[in-house]
UniProtKB/TrEMBL annotation:
It is found in: Cell membrane. It is a peripheral membrane protein. This is Flagellar motor switch protein FliN. It comes from the Bacteria. Its main location: membrane. The keyword Cell membrane applies. The keyword Membrane applies. It comes from Devosia litorisediminis. Residues 4-72 form the Flagellar motor switch protein FliN-like C-terminal domain.
Length: 77
């Protein structure tokens, strides 16, 4: 397992997504709200190095955000 300790993996957690013109993005200021295509009860998408690996849920515990994996995605080759 020692060699695995040095491997880095980029983890991304996606709450939702949207598409908007760049000029809207450039006009946004502090406190702006971006509406996403997901609801508050929709699962999060969890990616490792750009590949979807799981879905999960977000919660707040002791003032910290926490992501809990609810199910792993199956990979077909």
């Amino acid at each position: 397992m020692g060699t695995l300790d040095n491997i880095e993996v980029d983890i991304t957690v996606e709450l939702g997504a949207t598409t908007m013109p760049i000029h809207h993005l450039l006009r946004m200021g502090r406190g702006a709200v971006i509406e996403l295509d997901a609801g508050e009860n929709d699962p999060l998408c969890i990616y490792a190095n750009g590949t979807l690996i799981a879905h999960g849920e977000v919660s707040v515990e002791d003032g910290h955000l926490r992501v809990q994996i609810s199910n792993k995605t199956s990979r077909h080759r």
